[in-house]
Amino acid sequence: MIGRLPIRWRLTLWYGAVLAAVLTIFAATVDLLMARVLRHGTDQGLDHQVAVIEEQILQMREPVALRERLALLFHRHPAFEMQVTENDDRAWLRSEGVEKQGLPRPAVLPETPGEGVHEDVEVPGVGPCRMCSKVIETPYAFLLVQTAASTDANRKHLGELRRVFLATGPILLVAALGCGYLRARKGLAPVERMAAEADQITASRLDRRLAAPNPDDELGRLARTLNGMIARLELSFGDVQRFTADAAHELRTPLAVLRGEAEVTLLSDREPAEYRRALESMLEEIEHLTRLTEDLLSLSREDAQIPPSFEDLRLDEVVRDAFGTMTAVAAEVDRRLVLAGELAPCLVRGDRERLRRVVVNLIDNALKYTRAGGLVQVSLALRGDEAVMTVADDGDGIPPEHLPMIFKRFYRVDASRPRWGSSTGLGLPICRTVVLSHGGTIDVQSAPGAGTRVEVVLAARPAGPPRREEPAASWRSRPSYLGNG
């Protein structure tokens, strides 16, 4: 029930509960201390009175004279009732208040003469009293000396103290609750302002930030955290908007070409050869649309963080398989594709199809941006507990100012257009996303005129020698997933 209340009320109630507990403990402690102090004062008075009687007893040597002396001095006293008895039954002295009934016998007699015992008793005709009993040894008898004092005054003082606590405690508690509520409300006012500001932040107003009056306290840290989250959302929304705009632009261009080709072809009757050329041109655009759609679907799956089917697999076999596939493509476009040494046998934990796509895309990119007769080298080495797969070409290279941007989606280097085929600008972003999902890294090193070198590093461990495979079959046409530069 309390958990459903606003925070300010919960803070106030908890503060009030703690304060009530503190006040109760304080009042109980003061009450106990006050009772102890009053009892100690009464006991001191009783001890003093017993000492006075004992002094008179020790001064007198004759029993008759002693009884007369005690009756003369202690028969009446405004604060104490006194009694002196011999053998618990023969009274030598009884003060006026207990002259008839006497003082009660102590519950526990002193074990040795000269030792006093204090206790609370009920004296008929007097009421609740505090009594002190002490045995005194004389030459003629053992005398039990008793003094008693009423505790009415003590109870009165304690009652007044308790009435003060009962009267002021609730007032103090209510006042403290009110102050606590106001303080909690004031302390949570920045939270309410932050909530009101956050309500005004929408997808179209992600440029707004929450104010932090004191950046060093807890609310300031909360505001910084929320502002950081909003900044990341703004960046993500911007990326989504740019991605959507770029995708729409990329899809619109081949569609416009298809429509133009169809309209021009239908304007007049043509020879069969002209129709064939128009259909081939349209087929190329359809193939580009197919590749672009597949790349967009692949990126969408990666962005959705669909868990890959990880398994222990031979990375050298994956690279060899992709190399065999792309060998036919390289021969078709007059490029040389070679292995730079033996592929190191190694095991990695990953998704076979996604890693194969990475290798195919990197080789395809290298072939596209290499001149006719150029060389593309593929290597795989084991470096400690890491597998390093490299694809290097001797093409024109990438200008330094473009290197930080090549992993952005739909980004193309204008000065380095592909020498054949078409590019969607999604190949490297797909490679980077797949490699990162496998816990690896991808790095591109390039310079104008010096070619490009792409290095992929994945966690790996050594494996046995690769099994012998049949030569890769020749390809009549390029697979639909190629050409993703």
Protein described:
This protein has 485 residues and is of the alpha+beta class. The protein has 8 helices and 13 strands. The strands form 3 sheets. It has a 5-stranded antiparallel β-sheet. Strands 7-9-10-12-11 form a 5-stranded mixed β-sheet, covered by helices on one side. It has a 3-stranded antiparallel β-sheet with strand order 6-8-13. α1 runs antiparallel to α3, α4 (218-266) packs antiparallel against α5 and α7 (352-368) packs antiparallel against α8. Residues 469-485 have low confidence and may be disordered.
What is the helix content?
A: 40-55%
How many E strands?
13
Class of secondary structure makeup: alpha+beta
Distance between the termini: 61 Å
| Rg estimate, integer Å | 51 Å
Beta-strand content bin = 15-25%
Largest sheet: 5 strands, antiparallel
Q: What is the 3D form?
A: rod-shaped
**Lateral strand order in the biggest sheet:** 2-1-5-4-3
Give unreliable regions as ranges: 469-485
Q: Count the DSSP helices.
A: 8
Order of helices and strands: HHEEEEEHHHEHEEHEEHEEE
What is the overall pLDDT average? 81
